[in-house]
């Protein structure tokens, strides 16, 4: 039963990851990292398929081995976060935008400090 729950969570993460690769302001790789985590507990063969994927696998392996985010990934994340903050200020205004921007700044600082 527990393996089934891990599999279901992994599949949800894969779907969210695919959506994240298509939508510009939603992260994709983060969900694939979560999917690999879930599949490691639910179905290790599926985890290996993710790690072997030519597009996603290198990012997952770099994250697992060194906690690394590629320079291109950092740049894309930071640009999208800046756009999201600007849109939040434009659409929601104070105080929601201030709260959102504070969270984005903390996350941006964390992303910027990861190795490449």
Automatic annotation (TrEMBL):
Keyword annotations from UniProtKB, A to Z: Membrane, Transmembrane, Transmembrane helix
Superkingdom, natural source: Bacteria
GO cellular component term, pick one: plasma membrane
Transmembrane regions: 6-39, 96-113
Pfam families reported in the protein's UniProt record: DUF454
Keyword match Transmembrane: yes
InterPro entries from the UniProt entry: DUF454
Name of the molecule in the record: Inner membrane protein ybaN
Organism the protein comes from: Croceibacterium mercuriale
């Amino acid at each position: 039963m527990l393996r089934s729950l891990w599999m279901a969570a992994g599949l949800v993460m894969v779907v969210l990851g695919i959506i994240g690769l298509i939508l510009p302001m939603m992260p994709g790789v983060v969900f694939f990292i979560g999917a690999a985590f879930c599949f490691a507990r639910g179905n290790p063969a599926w985890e290996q398929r993710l790690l072997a994927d030519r597009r996603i696998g290198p990012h997952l392996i770099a994250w697992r081995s060194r906690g690394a985010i590629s320079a291109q990934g950092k740049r894309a994340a930071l640009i999208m976060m800046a756009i999201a903050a600007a849109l939040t200020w434009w659409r929601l205004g104070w105080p929601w935008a201030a709260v959102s921007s504070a969270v984005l700044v903390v996350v941006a600082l964390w992303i910027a400090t990861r190795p490449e």
